[in-house]
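Apologies for my clumsy wording, but can you show me some protein sequence, whichever is easiest, together with the matching C-alpha cells, please?
=====
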Amino acid sequence: QLQLVESGGGLVQPGGSLRLSCVASGVTLDYYALGWFRQAPGKEREGVSCISSSGGTTNYAEFVKGRFTISRDNAKNTVYLQMSNMKPEDTAVYYCALRFSTLCEGEVMPGEFDLWGQGTQVTVSS
C-alpha cells in the first residue's frame, strides 16, 4: 500500500524551529519529486516547497524563502522540512506529497502532486 506518513509537528514559539519528516512505504522515492504543503483553517492548501528526485533542484514559496529548507534521504525513503525563524502565520496542517515525475519546477502547485500524507499540525504561538 502506497503511503506517506508525516511526523515532527507540534507547538513552537515564534522564532523557534521544527523539523518535519515524511516517510514513504509501498513506494521507492528515488524516482519522484516530493513536496510540502500547508493548510491553515479557512484557507486553501498552498505549496511550501518541492525537491526533485535527485535532490538537485528545490523550489520555495516566497513566504518561506530563507527560513525553510527541504531535503531528502532516498536511502531512508524520507523527505524533511527544516523550519526556522518561525512565525505565527506558519501555523497550519503540513502535508507531504509525491509527484509521479522527477521534476520540481516553478510554483509548487497541489494539483501537480499525486499521493498525499495525512498531515501534521504545526502551531506557532507564545
The chain is about 0% helix and 45% strand.
